[in-house]
Amino acid sequence: MNLLKVAVCHHDKAQRQSVTETIMMGLKNTRLQCRLYSIRNTEEFVEALQQEQYHFDVICLDTAEAGCAQKILEREEAGCEYILLDTPDNMLAEYMQYKPAARIRTEEKSPEKAREALKVCLRYLSRKERWFCIQTKMKSLRIPYRKILFLESRQHQVVVHTVDQKEFCAFAATLDAVEQVLSQEDFLRCHQSFLVNLSAAEELDRSNRKLVLNSGDRIDVSKRYYKKINDFFSRESIL
Predict the structure, then answer these.
(1) Which of these three, 111, 127, 143, is where a domain ends?
(2) pLDDT digits (tens, 9 = 90+) for 37-89
(3) CB neighbourhood size of 14 (10 A)
(4) Helices of type H across the chain
(5) Residue pair 85/95 in contact by the 8 Å Cβ criterion
(6) Predicted structure pTM score
(7) Is it the case that residue 110 has pLDDT exceeding 70?
(8) Are residues 93 and 152 in the same domain?
(9) The domain that contains 57 carries what CATH number?
């Protein structure tokens, strides 16, 4: 299972909605999973990216607003691929220097092309994939970030829960030490015993103080970490 965070950035509301719907249709009957974000204000989006408030795996980018588009494309961010939206043929050469993964014409409304564009992005991203490396007495493991749901502290060990199986691996360590190793952009502590992959977080149940993951797991959120988790969801909702 591959989860991609995809931003759709288009100056025209109807076209932006059209791209989002086309991508959703393209994802039907595939193993690809995406979390889609519709970007309403391009200038605010540029500022947020420059301040590293957000990370996306794929940005579908309208190049009509050339100034904003170039600022986004010129960022040196690893682990992000770009799909150009409605870029005219006579302007394409100018944008090829940024090595976009694909191009989509919104007027075509082609789910097949959207699906193929995302697959190309995924292939490029897999080459740059980040891994969590584990050493145990019996073996050494490399687990892709995207496969980790959450990590749990249990009886002087850390248990890694993944999308493939509940307990992929347990190893001797403290969650504090693991938290220092994993990217704070991708993982967030929600409890003394839990460190969660933010890409897997779907819902914050505020009344029961639970974090709901896309796997169906419900993780406790303690008072100590509640503000950080709540801020994450508030920040995401801006888009």
Answers:
(1) 127
(2) 999 888 888 888 888 777 888 999 998 888 888 899 888 666 789 999 988 88
(3) 9
(4) 13-26, 42-50, 66-73, 89-96, 111-127, 175-181, 223-237
(5) no
(6) 0.58
(7) yes
(8) no
(9) 3.40.50.2300
**83 closest CA partner among 73, 74, 68:** 73
Q: Is 118 exposed, middle or buried (0-12, 13-18, 19+ CB in 10 A)?
A: buried
21, two tokens? 């719907």
Output phi, psi for 205, to 5 deg. Answer: -85, 95
The answer to whether the CB of 8 falls within 8 A of the CB of 16 is yes
Averaged pLDDT, 216-233: 92
For residues 210 and 103, what is the distance between their CA atoms, to the nearest angstrom?
A: 40
Residue 213 domain boundaries = 131-237
For the chain, the average pLDDT equals 86
Tell me the residue type at 208.
Answer: N
Tokens of 171: 């190893």
Radius of gyration of the chain (CA): 19
Q: Name the band, by pLDDT with cuts 50, 70 and 90, for residue 112.
A: very high
Q: Which of 121, 128, 166 is nearest to 148 (CA)?
A: 166
Strand partners, 5: 35
Residue type, 18: S
| DSSP structure class, residue 107 | G
Residue that is last in its domain, among 77, 112, 127: 127
CB 181 within 8 A of CB 158: no
